Amino acid sequence: MPRHLLPATAAAVAALAVAAALLTTRGAAPAAPPATAGEAALALQQARETGDPAWYARAERAARAVLARRPADPEALDALGELALARHRFADALALARQSRAAGPERLAPLSIAGDALIELGRHREGFAVVQRRLELRPDLTSYSRASYVQELTGNRAGAVRLMALAADAGRPGGEPRAWARVQLGLLRLGGGDHPGAERELRRALAERPGDPRAEAGLARVLAARGRLAAADRLLARALARQPLPEHAALRAEVAAARGRPAEAREHLALVHAMGRLMRANGVRTDLDLALIEADVRRPDAAAVARARLAWRERPGVVGDGVLGWVLTRAGRCREGLVLARRSLRLGTDDPLMRFHAGMAAACAGERDEARRQLSRALALNPRFSLRWAPAARASLREVSR
């Protein structure tokens, strides 16, 4: 699950109602009141819900205006930290979390930001310790969801499912954070091959929050895995209309390719790149995410490998290792790809796509026993883990088993 999409911290959420009222009445006021940290939090929430990165600039302006008046304001520092996470600027997020913690040592928000940043920066032990501390201090949706991710990264899917269920139950019915947690719970079940359970969770999310685009995209992923491609495409079209995110468009391209519609797939991939340009224009570092999408559809050239390597240096955790490893494998640099694929599994992560990437890297490098082991595990976890790659996994497994 993408960590930059985690729900806002409790302090930020608490400020939203006041900020919303302020923004609603501001147009009628003869003079605009000073910006508040709550306005920044509201803008970040709008970015999460709409997928429009233009809200990031509004969040930054509001937070920096507060800091111009009160340089150590912890809520404004938290808003900038959340913004840095959303923009994939993890070193900046960590520095801001530390400033906020120094300004208000008793506050929990900087712990959430620091935990996310440390994990993405590959400082896993430190990040896990921060997540555990947050959970001990306040077991709520924010803490449970982050603790779930730790369990997922360390290979305990059952524990991850249990904690994400607690996160969903802790959320306000109908609220976006609860829907997000329910979607993540469905995707955890999907990753473990529990298609009926995944569909149940995602339909429950939509029943509680009709039209939620992430829930629609998650349900589309489940339906596609179950062979209902037309229904999946309809859901993705609706999700994209409400929340134009590159991952929604990339999945729609995959569905179109599986339906034998290459022209449509190319159109959706063009949309992915257009969205990536828009995000970059709004300060979001998208190179690693786009490198993964691009490596899935064509063999990376030297320039693509160089871009992925630069992005990895800014995000050297297991996610970054996995993406760069796959880019190198697809580029034919098999030994380098295998080194990174192995590193991506160093915490014990038991994800079918990551296992598949490691298996393909091993096959490419001539490590047949390792390839058999990893590909078999990917298919055992979820025989339909990917429209594009599950058939390739079966074919490669037959090849290395001869």
Offer a concise description of the structure.
The protein is mainly alpha-helical and 402 residues long. The protein is 75% helix and 0% strand. It folds into three domains: 1-130, Serine Threonine Protein Phosphatase 5, Tetratricopeptide repeat, CATH 1.25.40; 139-244, Alpha Horseshoe (Serine Threonine Protein Phosphatase 5, Tetratricopeptide repeat), CATH 1.25.40; 294-402, Serine Threonine Protein Phosphatase 5, Tetratricopeptide repeat (Alpha Horseshoe).
Structure characterization notes:
It is built from 22 helices and no strands. With 402 residues, the chain is mostly helical. The protein folds into 3 domains: 130 residues, Alpha Horseshoe (Serine Threonine Protein Phosphatase 5, Tetratricopeptide repeat), CATH 1.25.40; 106 residues, Serine Threonine Protein Phosphatase 5, Tetratricopeptide repeat (Alpha Horseshoe), CATH 1.25.40.10; 109 residues, Serine Threonine Protein Phosphatase 5, Tetratricopeptide repeat. It is globular and about 70 Å long. 52% of the residues are buried.
Quote the distance from N terminus to C terminus.
36 Å
CATH architecture label of the largest domain: Alpha Horseshoe
Element string (H = helix, E = strand): HHHHHHHHHHHHHHHHHHHHHH
The CATH topology annotation of the largest domain reads as Serine Threonine Protein Phosphatase 5, Tetratricopeptide repeat
* Helix/strand/pairing category: mainly alpha
Estimate nothing, just give the exact number of structural domains.
3
User: In DSSP terms, counting alpha (H) and pi (I) runs of 4 or more, how many helices?
Assistant: 22
Bin the helical content.
over 70%
Strand content: under 5%
Oligomer: single chain
Stretches where pLDDT falls below 50 for ≥5 residues? 1-5, 10-31
CATH class of the largest domain: Mainly Alpha
β-strand number: 0
Mean pLDDT: 92
Strand count, sense and barrel status of the largest sheet are: none
* Rg, nearest Å: 21 Å
